[in-house]
Structure formats: structure tokens, C-alpha cells
């Protein structure tokens, strides 16, 4: 009984990609702008971004661990879900657009918890993930608005979808193999 969570969410932020990238890679600031329903523990924040590790603990949920497996500055950051309820991959992508930066996050996750897998038959786990991503995007927008030198462009609406086929490679690797994840 392998169950998956495959989702895609995006927002257009009225800020240039370098500002959005800086916020996304400032892991120590995540607790300032992530929703209060998720406790963020920064386990390691590396200057080169790759190798940075965070642990997320959703209220009334199960803990999960993520590690930055690869990145292209101001374009993409590949996240490896290496421990906890999920195993798989997440991908942040940034694209400069006329109104600022289009930011998206896609996940393809295997649900490792039997309880969560059973619940997924009656609860739309990708929809729950997308609801959380809307809160994360809102927090990021507010965080960016508090930064100096605000641009004057306006944001566009958010988009969420649950993908039948994944934009990410499926990852089936032990938790200690995060550094070798295929992320192309």
C-alpha cells in the first residue's frame, strides 16, 4: 500500500528573484515567517545552501526532515525529504516575470507512515499540503514586505494543483542517501 502526495503550488510575488532567493535560503529566518502551525527547527544552515537541513513539526502532525540536495542560485532549490512521514523530493522554482517573481513549489512524496497512508484514503493529503503552502506563501510575502527597498509591482493570484503525473523524479532511497538523490 504505497500512497503518494503529489502537488504543485505557485504565487507571483512583487519582488525580484534575488530578494525571494535570499528569503528562501535564509533558513534561520524561517521561524519568523512560516505559519505558527508548523514548528521549524534549523538543524544546519550552510553558506553554500546545499546540505542545509531543517526539520518541520506540524501541529497535530508528524515530524519530517528535509535537506537541500541541489540548487541553482535564484532559479531552483531541490529539497530531499529524508526522514519522518515522507520520503521524496520537493522543488522550489523561481522565474522572473513582469510583476516580480513567479515562485512555485512541487512535491512528489511517498507517504511512509501507515497511519497517514490510511488517512489519505479519506483525506486529500495533496489538498492539505496546498493549503499549508498558501499559508507559507502568505508568510513569505509578509516577510518580504518588511524588507527594505520594496518594489512597486503587484502580486498575482496563487495557483494550486494536484498532479496526476509528477514533475519530479520519484525517489526511493534510504534516509542517509540524500546526497545522492537524482534531481534532474
UniProtKB/TrEMBL annotation:
Q: Sorted alphabetically, which InterPro entries does this protein's record hold?
A: Polyketide_cyclase/dehydratase, START-like_dom_sf
Tell me which domain of life the UniProt entry assigns to the organism this sequence originates from: Bacteria
Q: What is this protein called?
A: SRPBCC family protein
